[in-house]
Write a structure and sequence with these properties.
five-stranded antiparallel β-sheet; 18 helices; 15 strands; elongated; PucR_dom
């Protein structure tokens, strides 16, 4: 801690007397400045103990009051008046002005040179800096040993909390809490989910500072909280939050920065290991998709503890253009792996850059944690499309992969986030087609009929719809329209003339029905 006015006053060799502002002696002293100017404010930075003999101070109460106000406004933490030269004693008007403004006023006896006060403060500042450096080195060594130990990141979090005299929490790349110390701080750390989520959407490294109720923490505690994202390549790999009763000091800031650096290195090292695991996992996934399930089981048993067993699904995700979509695809893979890791659920993931951009393949248990995490992640991020296969046995993963690819193609054409294979194989075709493409097709095909209906007698569009819905049965369609069947025959001939196409052609009927139905969707 920097020296305070109280510690300066307690230095008995200085023989200082407090005449005003005794309630504000805990203010830190950043420097000692001597000035005989009647307005030294332009030469001050704030945090100084100002010393003067008062040679140019005015005699009137108004002048002295103005002088005190100038010093207080400039951020001076205390005023020391040396007596015995221009003033035999400190003017009472100066004492009253300082008391009114809450500015500590010190009487400096003639026997105490100003240089003695400067030396005392300088020595205290040097001691503070030495202590900060020493403490920082000790903390770095302690945190480094913790990081290299068996508990790794969890040990770093515990040591950091102890060093700061508060609490610390570590979150993974998805924002889920992975370590907290002490244990009682879990609820406080959980309240930071929204703030962590905001940092998750910003490039790393970035940070945010919160203060008790003034921040986003809904708690009766007045903690000062700092949240820092961890990552070396702009994408956050994790997040660190610390809470302390008071604002962290410069020394504590050094300790925090050391912890951030160590955790970042640890996460990046873990990322490299994960990348190696991902490459092996991708190779296993391709073996499974190729039908080599037996061989894949033997390899996975030693590397990953086995493959997903039971009913599985294959999910294929693709990113749209732009770096943000590609980053979202990477985050989707992280979310899938984190979800599986939390509950011990097996999965296989493969990332690849194809001709149509980056893609992600995931093989996971049907409706398991990984499956649900992927669906949630795609809904949160624009620019991603996901195709999901039907439930299948592991031996049928190749067929499931083809289903997921077809579902993904439908999602991309239709501008949809997620398409399940069941939607492709059942129900109406229209929702699976691109809305813009269908609309343009329908407008172009039916334009001659609609232009006719606006300018001539006979509702050709309605007549065509009725005739097609009745599968070409003249009497039934005419009855639906309330016209004679000869009238309907005339209208259908007119439709053929305007379109230049025969209604006897099954393909023409199908296209016309699709165009008419698209206007109803």
């Amino acid at each position: 801690m920097p020296p305070t006015l109280a510690s300066v006053v307690r230095t008995t060799a200085l023989h200082l007397t407090v005449l005003a502002g005794a309630d504000h002696l805990e203010r830190p002293v950043r420097w000692v400045h001597t000035s005989e100017l009647d307005d030294p404010a332009p030469f001050l930075e704030g945090g100084e103990l100002l010393l003067t003999t008062g040679i140019k101070l005015g005699k009137g109460a108004a002048e002295l009051e103005a002088y005190v106000h100038r010093l207080a406004d400039a951020g001076v933490v205390g005023l020391g008046l040396g007596v015995g030269l221009s003033h035999r004693e400190v003017p009472q008007a100066l004492v009253e002005a300082a008391a009114q403004r809450g500015l500590p006023l010190l009487r400096v006896p003639e026997a105490t040179p100003f240089i003695a006060i400067s030396k005392a403060v300088s020595a205290a500042l040097a001691a503070e800096q030495y202590e900060a450096v020493t403490t920082s080195f000790e903390a770095q060594e302690e945190l480094t040993r913790a990081a290299l130990g068996k508990d790794g990141t969890t040990a770093v979090v515990r040591r950091l909390a102890a060093r700061l005299g508060g609490w610390a929490a570590l979150y993974d790349g998805s924002g889920a809490l992975s370590a907290v110390a002490p244990d009682w701080a879990a609820r406080r750390a959980g309240r930071l989910a929204a703030e962590v989520d905001r940092l998750r959407r910003r490039p790393a490294p970035s940070s945010a500072a919160l203060q008790g109720r003034a921040g986003t923490i809904d708690t009766a505690d007045e903690d000062y909280v700092v949240v820092q994202s961890l990552g070396a390549d702009r994408r956050p790999r994790g997040f660190l939050a610390v809470g302390t009763e008071d604002r962290i000091t410069p020394t504590e800031r050094y300790v925090l920065n050391a912890a951030v650096a160590l955790l970042t290195l640890t996460l990046e090292r873990s990322r490299e290991l994960r990348q190696a695991e991902e490459r092996m996992g991708a190779a296993l996934l391709r073996m499974v998709l190729a039908g080599e399930v037996g061989t894949a089981r033997q390899v996975a048993a030693g590397l990953f503890g086995g493959l997903p067993e039971g009913t599985v699904r294959v999910l294929v995700a693709a990113a749209g253009p732009g770096p943000e979509a590609a980053e979202a695809l990477g985050e989707l893979g992280d979310r899938a792996e984190n979800a599986g890791g939390k509950v011990g659920e097996k999965l296989l993931v493969a990332r690849e850059d194809g001709a149509h951009g980056p893609r992600l393949m995931v093989l996971a248990l049907d409706n398991g944690s990984v499956h649900r995490a992927c669906l949630g992640a795609v809904e949160e991020h624009e620019g991603l499309a996901l195709g999901v296969s039907a439930p299948a046995a592991l031996e049928d993963a190749g067929t499931a992969h083809a289903q997921a690819e077809r579902a993904l193609a439908v999602a991309q054409r239709g501008g949809r986030r997620t398409v399940d294979h069941e939607e492709v194989g059942a129900g109406s075709l229209l929702p699976l087609l691109g809305e813009e493409a269908v609309t343009a097709f329908a407008e172009g095909l039916l334009r001659p009929l609609r232009e006719h209906d606006r300018t001539a007698r006979g509702d050709l569009v309605a007549s065509l719809r009725a005739w097609l819905s009745r599968h070409g049965q003249w009497d039934a369609a005419a009855a639906d329209l309330g016209v004679h069947r000869h009238t309907l025959r005339y209208r259908m001939r007119r439709v053929e003339e305007l379109l230049g196409r025969s209604l006897d052609d099954t393909d023409v009927r199908m296209e016309l029905w699709l165009a008419l139905r698209s206007g109803e969707e």
